[in-house]
Amino acid sequence: DWLNKNPYLLGPNWVCPMDVGIRALNLIYAMQHIRHDKNIPHAFWERLTASLYDHMVYLENNWETYDGVTSNHYLSDLVGYLALCWYFQDVNRPEKADWVVAEFAREVRKQVFAEGTDYESTTRYHCLVTELIYHGWQLTKALGYEAEAGRLQQKVRNMFLAARWFGDIKIGDDDSGTLLYHGLTDAQFDELQIPHTVQGVQHYPAFGISLAVQSDWHVSLRHHAYRSGQSTAHLHNDAGSITVSCVGNNPRDLFIDPGSYVYMPSAIWRNHFRSAHQHNTFYIKGHEPIPLTDRIFSLDIPENIVDWLDDNTLVTHHVLYNRFGLSAHRRMVIEKSMIAVHDHWSLAPGFTTYTGPAYTEWNFTLAPDVEPRLTEAGVELYDAHRKEIIAVVESAQVGFCVIEGWMSPGYGKKLPCKKLRAERPVCINQETVIKIRLR
Q: 187, 279, 292, 367: which one has the fewest Cβ atoms less than 10 Å from its Cβ?
């Protein structure tokens, strides 16, 4: 049916090489499950094999490299081509496999930091790239390149370990993509001897995130991290943003990343979801740290290498408001049943006074099933399903209001949610402390 409705090179399914590469691997993967079925006519196998050869020719002429910048798209092209080289290995020239294995290994070295994270620096794309590289690694072995596969193994393992630390949090863009339908599997984590649970503090400075997993909390803190040569296509204005989830007997999300919603269908929604006022951070009211434009796959992020992290604390700072002479600072103190967030501005190097916009604003986007209730003591976060109070948010320096907002659980979807919003005049070297207490 698909072959009948999608002739070679005609229609939307022959526009994007990434789609072609992913489709080729999926067709080959599916074929392995039905290849012994004697009820399938020989003519079907001939036609499907001819289509796979078309996929190979297409990829050979449409590699997704743009001015030297490569991404998960080019990795998908290569992994699909690896699968095709394996399928056609009896008739292909050996140099095809030689080239794609070497190119795949080169891209892994380029696109994956030494710490084991994807250089596009979003958690969901990290999981997609981890899946791509896992299957590329397996195909490298299947094609007989054991030495190259051996050199890749530790990086593959580090990527799975990072995915375990990330858990279900979303930082940056999310297109809901997977290579195979089931995505990453428990069997793959077990094969690579990744522990089922992690605990403690873990920093991924190149990626730009610190994580704390304790008995009560799963917390993330986003850093301004960027190295020249990286793609900014999937990054958000989220420096200093946090996510907070309760773990234990009744795990649930409290402060969440808003997600992405859509890319090209609407620049307005695209910029709304990647803006600072959607993320759980503080910012100058009415001013994005990095201006958002109709260049929906680009952010003009200045280079910054994070090299000041302490093993046991979650702390970050950035100078993305340097045009106003400001440096932003956030420090998180995590205790059993309580998190204290300490925020303040300082003058950026070279500035002696502040004469910029008047107000600082805070935003906290709540999970859709969390209902905020204003009280004299602060804000009670109420679980609408369990009919109980989860936590209380309080601050001596700012008062919160509740506003309507949106979050995106997956690409093309948006759900209404509540947000906590507060503001305060910009004060230099004066802390604002916000506490989250479990009930």
A: 187
Separation CA 270–CA 268 (nearest Å): 5
CB 179 within 8 A of CB 22: yes
Distance CA 339, CA 280 (A): 14
Q: What token pair was written down for 402? A: 């509740």
The type of residue at 288 is E
For residues 235 and 219, what is the distance between their CA atoms, to the nearest angstrom?
A: 20
Answer whether 85's CB lies under 8 Å from 143's CB: yes
pLDDT of residue 361: 98
Q: In terms of Cα–Cα distance, which of 417, 394, 382, 386 is closest to 339?
A: 394
**Nearest by Cα to 436 from 242, 285, 278:** 242
User: Token pair of 136, please?
Assistant: 């590329």
Q: What are phi and psi of 39, to 5 degrees?
A: -85, -10
Dist. CA 240–CA 279, nearest whole Å? 9
Neighbours of 165 (CB within 10 A): 20
Surface-to-core class of residue 365, CB atoms within 10 Å of its CB (0-12 exposed, 13-18 middle, 19+ buried): buried
Coil, helix or strand for 174? coil
310 CB-side CA count, 13 A: 8
Q: Give the model confidence (pLDDT) of 357-388 as tens digits.
A: 999 999 999 999 999 999 998 999 999 888 89
In the chain, how long is the greatest CA-to-CA distance? 81
Residue 35 CB-half CA count within 13 A: 11
Distance of CA 147 to the CA centre of its chain: 31
Torsion of CA 349, 354, 358, 364, to 10 degrees: 20
84 conformational bin, left if phi > 0, alpha if psi -120 to 50, beta if neither: alpha
Both structure tokens of 390: 């989860």
User: pTM of this prediction?
Assistant: 0.95
**What pLDDT score was predicted for residue 143?**
97
